[in-house]
Description:
Double Stranded RNA Binding Domain; 21% strand; binds zinc ion; 17 helices
Amino acid sequence: MRTIRIFDTTLRDGEQSPGASMNVDEKLLVARQLARLGVDIIEAGFAFSSKGDFEAVRRIAEEVDGPVICSLARAREGDIRAAWDALRNAPRKRIHTFHSTSDIHLQYQYRISRDEALKRSVEMVRFARSLVDDVEFSPMDATRTDVDFLCEVTQAVIEAGAGTVNIPDTVGYTIPEEFGRLFKTLRTRVSNIDKAVLSMHCHNDLGLAVSNALSAVLNGAGQVECTINGIGERAGNCSMEEVVMALRTRTDFFEADTNITTTEFLRTSRLVSKITGIPVQPNKAIVGDNAFAHEAGIHTDGLLKERTTYEIIRPESVGFSRIHIVLGKHSGRHAFKSRLAELGYTLSDEEIDRAFERFKELADRKKEVYDEELETLVSDGVSRTGQVYRLEDLSVSSGMGRTPEARVRILTPSGPEEKKATGDGPVDAAYRAIAEITKTQSKLQKFEVKAITGGTDALGEVTVVLEQGEVTARGHGADTDIIVAAAKAYLSAINRLRATAGESGTGMP
Ligand code: KIV
Ligand code: ZN
């Protein structure tokens, strides 16, 4: 049985999903959960690309125990130095550097020859190795690269010290049989291949990312790059939960497994979804709401007699269980803190205090507080750290035959400001008042409402996407009052837009 390394890139490629940007505290929360899930490597960001990314890599490197912490870096000295500076304090660190190798990219984007690309790749792997022992190299757009040249580059970067060579299907172009053949070719034609781990990084443009990854595993790959919920650039990346569960369920076929604690999947999926605001489709394999819901009579009949008749994975093995009633208004700080710890949240005393305050407010309004609501309180609180605008008060009046009106008070950098506005509905009225206070120029692209648990007293969660010029930002808010949740979500997106506009970005791969 081979052990396949799981390289998580949710915080780097996953964050390249439109509008999915996360703040440093959110990234830390996700990174801690990834460590709990048991991933081998966390690609924490692209340190050179922005101040926020640098800070996220640095804090994850310092504060998250267990996995190797990695930063992406283009094959340039400045990028590699920034990666090293951010990773410096990690007990186990990796620099992942990359350069395009396909003629399409070299000719039209970089305007350099193959020889020049090879030279830069080798030099930068050597440079990275002068700083750190663990270096990964990716020949970008590998699946559209001339095979002879790909073999030459692979051989040369291993010679220069790369311990992992990752084969990216950057544009999601390959198909499983072809990709498997490519791995076989690399293994037979690159004479020093046994000195490195072969990896793959598959995009999902044709819906084949997981199949391509599995085909690579069958043909000798020892590392899979993937993301939670399959998020990532364009159509996303190989989904971690799917590839890991395929290996776990069919070890008889793949003769390979991973170090992942699969019971943490559902929690991780929900956390990433909450923080990025990207919902999980109900029929999504492994973590979708309907992944284990049987409808047809003949299926349920079989299931009741013997679960394995129609169930290939036990729902509990990926974290599904009955919702727990955890706490109520009489629960103390200690019970609250230990339940959060059981749920995998290690928060500072200050964070606990803030979350406990929000819990008490919620428990005053609602008798029973469920685990999922508790998780929302935590992620919502973390999303709010560092916000410029904060909602202080909101009241609305609306009803049949009346013009809805909202009064909103927001704490701004120059003190509290209050405005009244009318609108087509109470949310519209509140949004108009907020827009006037914050002077936002953004347009609302998406507005989504979801109840976290059942019942009319459930915590409601609102996700919005705002657009301003080239930039989009998501925001979410939760509250038992859906208008308040909507206002929080709008402000959170406005805060993110401001933060994104304030960061100088580098073109991501
Ligand atoms: O898709 C891609 O090619 C990448 C590389 C940087 C690995 O994200
Ligand atoms: Zn990618």
